[in-house]
Structures are given as structure tokens and as C-alpha cells.
Amino acid sequence: MMMRRRIEVLCLQEIRWRGNKSRFVNGYQIVCGEGDGLRNGVAVVLSPRISKYLVEVKRVNERLKKVILDIEGESICIISAYAPQTGLDKRTKEEFYAKASEMVERLNPEDTVVLAGDWNGHVGKAPEIFGDYSVHGGKERREDRYGGV
Q1: Most buried of 18, 36, 127, 145, CB within 10 angstroms?
Q2: Three-class secondary structure assignment of 17-56
Q3: Closest to 14 measured CA to CA, from 42, 44, 37
């Protein structure tokens, strides 16, 4: 699919591969996370054309990974993330967002940053903004949820 659609970089979530080594499949480099092979893994897939620019991989945990590319002197940081789901405890969520925030804060401000992933987020909880519903919540039509927006 990446070849057919000419996709150079693809961030994946919910992968279930064990280990933390890169793998090559049909010339594409799959930079895996520290997954246990059971859940929560993330990966970044690089095309053969782009993988030669890979200069750094930082695996924070099974849910966060950073790859840095140096393309013609420009540093590009790609972060693949898989946030904890709604049903998980507050501590797990807070730890994830703290690590993600720390990762972003440590980036070079001159770098181009791509932040991709499944954030499992619900936007808006304050009633004065969105009423009793988050963007993902409720069964009402969008018009009903957001006052005709």
C-alpha cells in the first residue's frame, strides 16, 4: 500500500511485534517499539528512499517512539504515539502524557516535528464549550451536539 500510494513515512499503533529492533520488509524499514508482542506497540515505517536518512531512534516505551531523519541538512523528528484508552486508570494516562510532553520539550526548536498517532482523546469536557458531550461522545447528530455548527 505504501508503494502504491507513494507514502514515505507511516506511523503505526497497536502493533504486536516482540522486541525493539528494526526489520526490513520489501525494502521498507519498520522501526519497532519495545512491545511485548501483546498490546500497545508503536512503529514507524520508512520507505527505501527515506530510510537512508535515519539518524536516531528513541524508544521511550511501548507507546512512544521518536525517529529523527536528517534530509539535506534539515532535521525532521517523527513521533509515533498510542495514548491509553478511556478505560485505563488516571495514573497510566498521566504518565503517558508526562512522557510525551517531556519528549516534545526536549526537541530542538529548529527541527521540523511530525506528531502522529492514536491519541484516544476526547476534546472538550467543559460544559461551557461543548455541553455535556465530547467530540467523540454522544449519539446526537453533530448539529445537535454543537449548537448547529
Answers
A1: 145
A2: CEECCEEEECCEEEEECCEECCCCEEEEEECHHHHCCEEE
A3: 42
Residues shown for the chain: 149
Cβ neighbours around 147 below 10 Å, total: 8
pTM for this model (two decimals): 0.74
Q: How far apart are the first and last CA of the chain?
A: 36
Per the structure block, which three cell numbers stand in for 48?
Answer: 527505501
pLDDT tens digits, one per residue of 12-42: 888 877 666 788 888 999 888 665 555 678 8
Tell me, what amino acid is at 146? Y
Q: Are strands 74-82 and 112-118 parallel, antiparallel or unpaired?
A: parallel
* Buried-exposed string 87-102: b where 16+ CB fall within 10 A, e elsewhere: eeeeeeeeebeeebee
Q: How far is CA 45 from CA 3, 65, 77, in A?
A: 12, 12, 14
